Amino acid sequence: MADAQVTAQERSTLSRIAADADVSTSTVSKVLNGRAGVSEATRARVEDLLHQHGYQRRGLRDPAALIELVFANFSTVWALEILRGVQTAAAARGLGVVVTESGDHRAPGPEWMDGVLQRNPIGVVLVLSGVTRSQRQQLQARGIPVVIVDPAGNPAPGVASVGSANWNGGLSATRHLLQLGHRRIGIIGGPVDMICSRARLAGYRSALEEAGVPVCEELILAGDFERDSGLRQAQRLLALPDPPTAIFACNDLMALGVYEAARLAGLTIPDDLSVIGYDDLNVAEWTGPPLTTVRQPLLEMGRQAAQMVLSLDETGPAPRVDLATDLIIRQSTGPAPS
Amino acid sequence: MADAQVTAQERSTLSRIAADADVSTSTVSKVLNGRAGVSEATRARVEDLLHQHGYQRRGLRDPAALIELVFANFSTVWALEILRGVQTAAAARGLGVVVTESGDHRAPGPEWMDGVLQRNPIGVVLVLSGVTRSQRQQLQARGIPVVIVDPAGNPAPGVASVGSANWNGGLSATRHLLQLGHRRIGIIGGPVDMICSRARLAGYRSALEEAGVPVCEELILAGDFERDSGLRQAQRLLALPDPPTAIFACNDLMALGVYEAARLAGLTIPDDLSVIGYDDLNVAEWTGPPLTTVRQPLLEMGRQAAQMVLSLDETGPAPRVDLATDLIIRQSTGPAPS
């Protein structure tokens, strides 16, 4: 039935590709539909030719009513919020969401790609993960669009993506502490090679400059977005001869590490030390005292990514959308000790 | 192509059903495959007849290489661990996992059922959710097996399920506190209508009896598995004339509430109060001090459920598997104050 939808022009393109690759058209069709029984070398040759001919259409079959969603990893509730957003948008259109944890930030593995070609989804959403060049070509050849949910701010060039406004988030967190009278504000940033870390730190610097407060390099440390680095770096900050009265941890997990450092040092939050996080994971609400933090609109980012992948015009430039963050004031920030 | 696989016998069953329902066989086939264009009343009539005739086969099509996974809700990292387990088992067989959050503990909604009939998965795994009678019949008629991941211990009769050993978990948590010399041990249980709550509480009672420590009813309170109920009930326990020296919170979220109650009362954990949780969510590790807890093997439960749904013999009795829990000793429990 689906074969009937192949136009005469496509048929001729596929015949030419089959001739160039020295294989049958049924082999080309196997490659397009991700079926078995084709050697790796032949598959690669056919994929190359499909790409050279700019072959792009919805495979030889109707797409399945599915969106593919890939997470590099599921380690925090972070992932659930995005999943919930994608699923809400998909369900509204009667689509199922196939979820995979790839375990690799660079790209999902070849088994995933095999599965995708067989499932033939309407689109692919990747979270904190890229795709390889060859995967992009394979998806493009079948007209399967890709959108990256990329709060880290480092999307591959030419790929549509959804992120959030990290610089603004860093700015508003720091402004909040300045308004409470803090002047010695420590910051524990994320990994220095991530754009989101740099953007949040730049927002911190801008807020201090705006308020005429000098930036002290000794108050600026980098973590790795894990709790333990928050603990370790907070201990370094608290051991300074003139320690900060407030610490901005660039994610909530590191803020939990700051809590632990304060507890071990016998300091009370917020009386002795104000702490602000970033993300608004649900643990932020559950800690004692509940954490003031910058909320990333993760659910909304997931929803936006699903909508984008369903409406993507692949002939135009790849869109990038950054959603706004919110400052959520709870009980971990208070006036600077006088 | 798939139609060719319909046997002569099935064809005659389907013709008879069509005749009884006073519709065409193509309408029966539409109902089986979840296609549109059939009125609700006709659909219900045909489903009833399919059930009466004991019609059961893989629909009229080959099943898709998919497992359907439904969560009543995604609210904690809990869900991620189970998802990870299901996905690992599915990926090992080249299957995709379609994930849905239904928002309802009783059963997923009718839109989900429509999607499932169209997608025609190999099997369905439900987490903390049931299915309606009519959904079960519809799935059975198509030979789509169902397994429930049910740590709450309340599976619908006749449905295969995977859980964990709640009574043993309650026993080992309480034994641990007894070994540390605690005699006044409070417990904040889960909702009283959940079997898992009753099993953990029974484990607590058994451990006390085993140690010859009297059970005091004033030390037994019920929560609702949310953090705030842990806070509230811990405050009641700590306000007793002879307050407990240890509290067993029957999940980790309520244990976080106990932490907050201790902080507000100026008590240090574990010097003034020992706290033990249940689940081993990753927040358990992140709190200060890190939480001693009973680990539920969520990942393993997900994996087991996926394997079960792929190998289920629907003619035999519905299997039930309970996996063992582990006591994870961290820093929130210590010797009873003398």
UniProtKB/TrEMBL annotation, chains A, B:
InterPro entries: HTH_LacI, LacI/GalR-like_sensor, Lambda_DNA-bd_dom_sf, Peripla_BP_I. It comes from the Bacteria. SUPFAM superfamilies: lambda repressor-like DNA-binding domains, Periplasmic binding protein-like I. Pfam families: LacI (PF00356), Peripla_BP_3 (PF13377). One of its GO terms (molecular function) is DNA-binding transcription factor activity. PROSITE patterns: HTH_LACI_2. Keywords: DNA-binding, Transcription, Transcription regulation. Residues 12-62 form the HTH lacI-type domain. This is LacI family transcriptional regulator. Gene3D superfamilies: 3.40.50.2300, lambda repressor-like DNA-binding domains.
